[in-house]
Amino acid sequence: MTATAMVIGMIPMALGLGDGGEQNAPLGRAVIGGLLLATVATLLFVPVIFSLLHREAVAPATAEPKQTVPPNGLSEALHAS
Fold first, then answer.
1. Position 77 in a domain
2. Domain-located, residue 79
3. Residue spans of beta strands (DSSP E) within the chain
4. Residue 39 and residue 6: Cα distance in Å, rounded?
5. Averaged pLDDT, 16-30
6. To 5 degrees, how large is the angle CA 29–CA 33–CA 35?
7. I need a labelling partner for 47 at 20 to 30 A (CA). Which of 10, 20, 25, 41 fits?
8. How far is it, in rounded angstroms, from Cα 31 to Cα 47?
9. Three-state SS annotation for the chain
10. C-alpha to C-alpha distance for 22 and 15, rounded to whole angstroms
11. Nearest CA among 40, 44, 43 for reference residue 32
């Protein structure tokens, strides 16, 4: 919502409206392009990279075989009674 409000606010500057607007128009266009690119990157690329890195971190942990734990005295006492 913040990026959308900023883009809408920068439209008059990007169109070069007002006195001396033709000098500020390239700055307005650059700001709008940067906001749109950053928003797309935040919403698409960051989650994809996170999921890829998370898969790499979780995969070796699940590949190890489970070890059986030998029974301790408490479990033997519970089964004996």
1. no
2. no
3. none
4. 12
5. 91
6. 120
7. 10
8. 24
9. CHHHHHHHHHHHHHHCCCCCHHHHHHHHHHHHHHHHHHHHHHHHHHHHHHHHHHHHHHHHHHHCCCCCCCCCHHHHHHHHC
10. 8
11. 40
Query: Is 70 exceeded by the pLDDT of residue 5?
Result: yes
Packing angle between helix 2-15 and helix 21-40, nearest 10 degrees? 150
Mean pLDDT throughout 18-31? Answer: 92
User: In this structure, is residue 72 part of a structural domain?
Assistant: no
Amino acid at site 34: G
* pTM, rounded to two decimals: 0.60
Number of domains in the chain: 1
Distance CA(56)–CA(49), nearest Å, equals 11
Q: Which tokens is 42 given?
A: 């935040």
Contact (CB, 8 A) for 32 and 7? yes
Q: What pLDDT is attached to residue 55?
A: 84
Which tens digit of pLDDT belongs to each residue from 44-79? 999 999 999 988 766 555 555 666 666 666 666 666
State CA 49 to chain mean position distance: 8
